[in-house]
Design a protein that fits this description.
- The complex is a heterodimer of chains A (327) and B (331).
- With 327 residues, chain A is α/β, with parallel strands linked by helices.
- Chain A folds into 2 domains: 182 residues, Rossmann fold (3-Layer(aba) Sandwich), CATH 3.40.50.970; 127 residues, Rossmann fold (3-Layer(aba) Sandwich), CATH 3.40.50.920.
- Chain A has a 7-stranded mixed β-sheet with strand order 3-2-4-5-7-6-12, with helices on both faces. A 5-stranded mixed β-sheet of chain A has the order 9-11-10-13-14, with helices on both faces. In chain A, strands 1-8 form a two-stranded antiparallel sheet.
- With 331 residues, chain B is α/β, with parallel strands linked by helices.
- Chain B has a single domain, classed as Rossmann fold, CATH 3.40.50.
- In chain B, the strands form 2 sheets. Chain B has a 6-stranded parallel β-sheet, sandwiched between helices.
- In chain B, helix 2 crosses helix 3 and helix 2 crosses helix 12.
- The longest helix of chain B is centred in the first third of the chain and has 26 residues.
- The two termini of chain B are 38 Å apart.
- Classes of the chains: A alpha/beta (327), B alpha/beta (331).
- The interface between A and B is large, with 41 and 48 residues.
Amino acid sequence: MTATTYRDAIREAIRDAMQRDERVFLMGEDVGRYGGCFAVSKGLLEEFGPERIRDTPLSESAFVGAGIGAAINGMRPIVEIMTVNFSLLALDQIVNNAATILHMSGGQFHVPLVIRMTTGAGRQLAAQHSHSLEGWYAHIPGIKVLTPATLEDARGMLWPALQDPDPVLIFEHGALYNMEGDLPQDAGPVEIERAAIRVPGSAVSLITYGGTLFKTIEAAEKLAADDIEAEVVDLRTLRPLDTGAILESVSRTHRAVIVDEGWRSGSISAEVSARITEGAFYELDAPVERVCSAEVPIPYPRHLEEAALPQVETIVAAARKAVGAGG
Amino acid sequence: MSDDKVIERGHLLDLLRDMIRVRRFEEKCAELYQETKIRGFLHLYIGEEAVAAGAMCALDAEDTVVATYREHGHALLRGVPAEAIMAEMYGKAEGCSRGRGGSMHLFDRKTHFGGGNAIVGGGLPLAIGIALADKLRGRPQITACFFGEGAVAEGEFHESLNLASLWQLPVLFLCENNLYAMGTAIERSEANLDLPVKAGTYQMPAWSVDGMDVLAVERAVRAAATAVRAGGGPHFIELKTYRFRAHSMFDPELYRAKDEVESWKHRDPIELFTERLRSEGLVTDEVLAQIEKEAAEEIARAIEFAEAGTWEPVEDLTRFVYSEPRGEEAS
């Protein structure tokens, strides 16, 4: 085992991919000389040179579109968008080109592109730097949406994403970069289609992904202290959703709480809830609960930001409500 | 006219033939639209044929072409079979995009036709990425990116020209200035009407050409393509042209005077070029009749093919949202 961080695990994944396949290159704002806004790509410029660790101007639409074009024309680009907030400047390229070209061309032009971006709140960065829009992207057919939360997934999801012939968006939660832990020396690619049970349990399914995974695990530990055995399901991939794993868990626990840093309305939590209703309605012993962000632009002061986001206490309360243990 | 290819008679007749093929194809499309054989949006290229005819013959077979939603002529002259284009407009499975794209989304991998794009300016970032891949792989290809003057007002124009120049990418920006972005006259959308000056601020060679003169277009595009291919970085050409028909089949043309349209029709690129060839004794009524006959036959074959085409089974609705295992090779 080697001590590492989420940030280092992603860097190692990029390095590994660049060594394995000369068609892979990294492109984005400040990925080179600066070393990456979140220091993910630090040192890679020195190792791979400016052709493959390619700094771009602040032109999200152009460099995301360039990633699409390069992918169509035989490369395997990793485009880094500094944060999901800025990805809105490239929305046209992602939604109107990356997601449609294979279909519009009748299967002729594949877009084997990976776009990585930071997502999420929790760092007092205020409304324009705190969006969690991965659920939004999961709405769109033609792209895949990955949300690595663990070190293994941070290390392992990139390579299969690059092997995928279609565009894959990887959302890295900003609060996770400093997370430390151990990874096996030979850690490598992981599968990217299945949800994972992070904590097994039988009383209630706590279904989450990304930045709220560890809050949810902490909530499960608190619940365990009260003899409520909560199961924590990490969705890992928001599109395509592993509906089977969700239904399987809920069919065993008969209760579900969905934890999502996105806003409640029209969210991925709404989608998960709908699939439970569609596929496991008669298994439910209680209404599906949701813990989402408050429907406000994320505020700057710490106390208000904390109040706006899912927290261990709110997850515990929702789980207790679901099992009928009172709040 | 220094290029031997330009002055050779056979080539001149090819240019004329190409323009006539596009004109007749588009006229037939308008009829088929009235007959509801073609649905959706239909944008005709009538009046602008000299641009595609002059430009396409100056490109190499391995170059990539990125076009707009007014791209039937570009596809046809790039070498996409008329049958496949017409079948696409019919929405048939035999269409060049299996019927999934329609008039605005003609794609053809074989001829490196990277699509009609229905978002104004949406093709520019794509084109620089295609060119970036060619450059990174050390290939000699260039990418020709067609767009209208309406796209010049989009942010993608700025971002893409800047990036192409910064990275010295092998892209040829071909701006078809037909004076109207749908119904908005360029005077009402651009602060600077001198588009080469605007493009030139990105440190790339940029100039204007009479887009109604097929030889001028060819000469300019050939020179620019040669320079781009030689490593000269991106080039920009404004092709001054005019659309004789409405923006689309839904457009009542309230925004421009009939006189203006009529006066531009005096500069019809096909008539101008025909007269020129006639005056030089290079074309006769007989030759013209033959060209018209061949164009009519090509279109008749295309319609026959489209009519005989099949509808994609509804069961296949969700195919090609994601790649299929063991589908066509990615590159």
